[in-house]
Design goal:
By secondary structure, the chain is mostly beta strands. It has a single domain, classed as Galactose-binding domain-like (Jelly Rolls), CATH 2.60.120. The protein is built from no helices and 11 strands. The strands form 2 sheets. Strands 1, 3, 5, 6, 9 and 11 form a 6-stranded antiparallel beta sheet that branches. Strands 2-4-10-7-8 form a 5-stranded antiparallel beta sheet, with no helix packed on it. A hairpin with a 5-residue loop joins strand 7 and strand 8. The two termini are 24 Å apart.
Length: 165
């Protein structure tokens, strides 16, 4: 059995550096159980990072050390999904409370794509933890950015053992 954590807050839309465009949208656009590409968070300038907090979990023991993060994203330019120059989207899972982070290399973006990445829970777990996700688009043309329509994180629950006497 697995526990699915969905976005429940946006922690940061970017750096607030003058001249850079932050991400825009609400976490409610990406926390559905089934991806809906009609609702999304729009990426900011190249290098601007979106930090999303996930619903808290009370799990302190796990059935395995493997968690899975999934997200659905595309590149966009001039309002056209899949348009524009080259875009990479770097994604990370992090522990909000202690800053531990696992980053996944940049995903080369086109039209809508669903990504899945496994990670080691023990690299992030500490007592009293809360997990989050980060997304950072990188492009060279200055007009292309990412759109994010869905994200979730899956944790393995401990196995239940039934004793028959």
């Amino acid at each position: 059995m697995r526990e699915i954590l969905r976005p429940d807050q946006v922690i940061s839309y970017g750096s607030n550096v003058v001249g850079l465009t932050p991400w825009t949208g609400s976490f409610t656009s990406i926390n559905e159980a089934i991806p809906n590409d009609a609702t999304y968070i729009l990426g900011g300038s190249s290098g601007e990072e979106l930090r999303i907090g996930l619903a808290a979990t009370s799990l302190t023991q796990f059935g395995s050390d493997v968690g899975v993060v999934r997200w659905r994203a595309a590149k966009i330019s001039g309002g056209v999904i899949g348009g524009g120059g080259n875009l990479n989207l770097t994604t990370s899972v992090y522990n909000v409370r202690n800053g531990s982070t696992i980053s996944f290399g940049g995903s080369t973006m086109g039209g809508w794509q669903t990504f899945e990445q496994q990670f080691s829970i023990s690299a992030l777990y500490r007592s009293n933890w809360q997990l989050g996700l980060t997304f950072r688009p990188t492009t060279t043309d200055g007009t292309t950015t990412a759109v994010l329509s869905w994200a979730e994180l899956e944790l393995p629950r401990p196995r239940r053992v039934t004793l028959i006497l």
